[in-house]
Amino acid sequence: MSKSGQDPDRVIAVLSEVDDRTLADALRQPVTACVEAGTMTLLADFQGCLVLILTTANAFGIDMGTLFADALIDRQLIDPERRDDVYLALHEALANGLMHGNLDLSSDGAESPDDFLRQAELMQERLLMADYGKRPIALACAVRGTMLEISVRDWGPGFTPPTDAAEPKRLSGRGLYLMTAHSDALRYEERGRRVVLSYNMKRPAHA
Amino acid sequence: MQHDIAITGKSLTLTLKEKLIFSDTAKFAAIIQKVKDSDIGSCVVALRGLDHIDSSGLRMLLLLHDACKEKKIRLQVKGAQGQVKEMLLHCRFDTIVTLED
Fold first, then answer.
1. What is the value of pTM for the model shown?
2. What ipTM, to 2 d.p.?
3. Shortest CA gap A120–chain B (Å)
């Protein structure tokens, strides 16, 4: 654990190994930023009360959404009754960022079982390739007024975000629908590379 | 995802446990490949031990359905409950496959 030179109040945990238990331990207070070794230089671009940066290959085997949501509950930033909402939306945002962002796998590219088999093979290949597997994925949360904003940033090619949460197609679009359904507001930034999920901290669960 | 595959005669039973999510893509692709390569007449997907499914997991089940349809394999989905059942109903999976208890 170390103090940041750029932000003296920032307490940083640097992970040399990444697994669920190590990450859960590293996210405990007073840590405000948790980064995988080699991604520290990216930290300056992320402000907020909790930041987590992992590489794609390691993020794939980790339940980042659950661990991050639990860390927010631990810091009393979200009501425990809203945990499922936060987890479900965050999980879908992470899945999109990793699969369609960092691994650059088309969301429309697996319309048949054979397409899916090819895409799964491509996914496995790319996870092992440094150009894809080492791409970072960053989670950050910040409080703005009564809203808690949780952002997921990927390093993929970006995309043109939809103007509204259209009815999902049979095999695609359901992730966006779920993110919208399980957050109070959603917006895209940086040409689709960053999705921001907002939660009204004063809204009771199930309101 | 934890899973088990049992083949008895012409019937394959796929038991899924814990979570079915995007990071299970490769494992589930192997399952679909096994179904495509097999000489079965029916496929039972047992979901009682499955606690969570995401949008990618739903897509995988839909593609398993498509793979079964291509090979004229009868598909049964059993035991979905909680969030998994909610998601299946939400995407109207019950209109293409009967969800059995």
1. 0.93
2. 0.93
3. 5
